[in-house]
Amino acid sequence: MTEKISTGIEKLDELTSGGFIEGSFVMLSGEPGSGKTMLSNSFLKEGLNNGENCIYVTFVEPEEKIAEYGRSMDIDYSKYEKQGNFKILDRPVGEEMHVEDLTTEIIDEVNSMNCKRLVIDSLSAWILGFPEGQKKRRLVRTLSRLLDRVNCTWIGIVEHTPKIEEASFEEYLADSVIYMETKFKDNVLKRELKVLKMRGSDHARNAYGYIIDEDGINIGGPK
Ligand SMILES: Nc1ncnc2c1ncn2[C@@H]1O[C@H](COP(=O)(O)OP(=O)(O)OP(=O)(O)O)[C@@H](O)[C@H]1O
Ligand SMILES: [Mg+2]
């Protein structure tokens, strides 16, 4: 039986027929400033509120920034950290060797904390250390399988303009893909969220407008 877990955003739960599939790899793709980090924070907030242990791996912004975003969304990451329920791994984009070491580190941490929700911000920055396409794919696949085995649901953020015609290997490997599109229309910034796929589950097929405010992502009606 496929178990669903709440995404932390009520409307996104609706669009995904009840949330993300437990243990699955959710790829979140979007332009700069489209709200990928915000959505990921809501996902972790939901887990922490439910007593699940969570890990945030950051290659993009420093640990202090993540804590600050958390505070602005009413998440006290430092409290959860002290209790042993949360960990931020702030790591530089490394060389090939370090990419493999970090995979082992993540899996070890997930196992020792019994982590149920993980965010990698961003997968693109992390695998920059791998020059070869095949190795990148193998790494993401291995990670994905190991996390599935221990029912750890994870968001892998991918930094690119979401375009199905230019789908990357992550889109094929991921169990679910969410596009957060940001574009200027008549000189005004417009945002749209789309669920591209969700293996083994029904999901919304429309594009949905959304805004970002201090509470996070607010998804509106279909376009
Ligand atoms: N309190 C707020 N009120 C309104 N909009 C906000 C607020 N906080 C953040 N935003 C919007 O959210 C954007 C940042 O979202 P976020 O950091 O999640 O994007 P991102 O997709 O992770 O970007 P990047 O790829 O650069 O990391 C800001 O550029 C701004 O437009
Ligand atoms: Mg971000």
Structure characterization notes:
With 223 residues, the protein is α/β, with parallel strands linked by helices. It has a domain at 23-159: Rossmann fold (3-Layer(aba) Sandwich). Helices cover 36% and strands 31% of the residues. The chain contains eight helices and eleven strands. The chain has a nine-stranded mixed beta sheet, sandwiched between helices. It starts with a strand and ends with a strand. The structure holds adenosine-5'-triphosphate (ATP) and magnesium ion (MG). Residues 30, 32-38, 60, 159, 212-214 line the site of adenosine-5'-triphosphate.
Give the topology:
Layout lengths: L3 E2 L4 H6 L4 E2 L3 E6 L5 H14 L3 E6 L4 H10 L4 H7 L2 E5 L5 H18 L1 E7 L1 H4 L6 H17 L3 E6 L10 H5 L2 E10 L2 E11 L8 E7 L2 E7 L1
Parallel strand pairs: 3-7, 3-8, 4-5, 4-6, 6-7
Antiparallel strand pairs: 1-2, 8-9, 9-10, 10-11
Helix pairs in contact: 5-7
The structure holds adenosine-5'-triphosphate and magnesium ion.
The site of adenosine-5'-triphosphate has 13 residues, from helix 2 and strand 10.
